[in-house]
TrEMBL record:
Keywords on record: Repeat, Transferase
Region: Disordered, residue numbers: 175-198
Species this protein is from: Aquamicrobium terrae
Protein's name according to its UniProt entry: Thiosulfate/3-mercaptopyruvate sulfurtransferase
PANTHER family: SULFURTRANSFERASE (PTHR11364:SF27), THIOSULFATE SULFERTANSFERASE (PTHR11364)
E.C. numbers: 2.8.1.1, 2.8.1.2
GO molecular-function terms, A-Z: 3-mercaptopyruvate sulfurtransferase activity; thiosulfate-cyanide sulfurtransferase activity
Upper lineage: Bacteria, Pseudomonadati, Pseudomonadota, Alphaproteobacteria, Hyphomicrobiales
Residue ranges of every copy of the Rhodanese domain listed in the record: 19-136, 166-279
EC top class, as a word: transferase
InterPro entries for this protein: Rhodanese-like_dom, Rhodanese-like_dom_sf, Thiosulphate_STrfase_CS, TST/MPST-like
Pfam families: Rhodanese (PF00581)
Length: 288
């Protein structure tokens, strides 16, 4: 395992266990259009032997108008069951760069009742660069039944988020890039205002890792504290659509912070409304 986080495993740990019964390896890669990467195409071309592909779009709530909305326990169970993943498995999830979309899958499995789930430190890009085994052979899947035990207390709704912003009862950590947070760069989705929720702190997901590997605990702690996050108080994590917010959740739990929740609608929901308060980088209300 990786030295600093109980939720991360290194490449040596995983390679030594490939093919063992009860181990599920999951490619949870997902990218923004700006990345110009095709997650499914890359998986089909090369993946860790035995890995299945978890489509972040397809696993989302099919009835939601928002992207990447957390699915119901029933939908999630049916979806991952068709991938041959059991709630009793040891699950290792990965993405290309290391800490971008994989933590979202980690978080979903966690709130669905699986605790032996880990993120691969360094991701698939480092795995390939180190000459570790890859394959283009389709993974043989034996569908199974996945029993979810959903913990809805870890998810923040829009109504709760309105109250939190108004009363400041929890801190808000936003994983988007500095330009999007400050409102100096446009949102990638049409019709979404730029800026951030009043009182939010910006901790870009890209700051959590170095060369695709999670920062050591002292550096993670300094990162959050420098952003104005008091680790003794509750935190709500957010991002563009709920994907990279989970990386902040993983980092917080690595630091021993046990009182964090994730705003699943994130900025796509908040910034897409006309009656939610929005601030720009200088703290002034954003123009409608």
């Amino acid at each position: 395992m990786a030295a600093d986080s109980p939720f991360v495993v290194d490449a040596d740990w995983l390679q030594q266990r490939l093919g063992q019964p009860g181990l599920s390896v999951v490619d949870a890669s997902w990218y923004l259009p700006a990345h110009k990467r095709d997650a499914r195409g890359e998986y089909d071309a090369a993946h860790i032997p035995g890995a299945v592909f978890l489509d972040q779009d397809a696993v989302s709530d099919p009835e939601s108008e928002l992207p990447h909305t957390l699915p119901s326990p029933r939908h999630f169970s049916r979806f991952v069951g068709t991938l041959g993943i059991s709630a009793d498995d040891t699950i290792v999830v990965y993405d290309g760069p290391g800490f971008f979309s994989a933590p979202r899958a980690w978080w979903m499995f966690r709130i669905m009742g699986v605790y032996q789930v880990y993120v691969l430190d360094g991701g698939f890009d480092n795995w390939k660069a180190e000459g570790r085994p890859v394959t283009a052979e389709p993974t043989k899947i034996a569908p199974c039944i996945f029993h979810a035990q959903f913990d809805e207390s870890r998810v923040v709704s829009l109504a709760e988020m309105r109250r939190i912003v108004e009363n400041r009862e929890s801190q808000i950590a936003d994983a988007r890039g500095p330009g999007r947070f400050a409102g100096t760069e446009p949102e990638p989705r049409a019709g979404i205002r730029s800026g951030h929720m009043p009182g939010a702190s910006n901790i870009p997901v890209t700051a959590l890792s170095r060369d695709g590997k999670l920062l050591p605990v002292p550096e993670l702690r300094e990162l959050f504290e420098n952003a104005g996050i008091d680790l003794a108080r509750p935190v709500v994590t957010s991002c563009g659509s709920g994907v990279t917010a989970a990386a902040l959740t993983l980092a917080l739990e690595t630091l021993g912070h046990g009182d964090s929740r994730l705003y699943d609608g994130s900025w796509t929901e908040w910034g897409g409304l006309t009656d939610t308060p929005v601030e720009t980088g200088n703290g002034e209300p954003a123009k409608p």
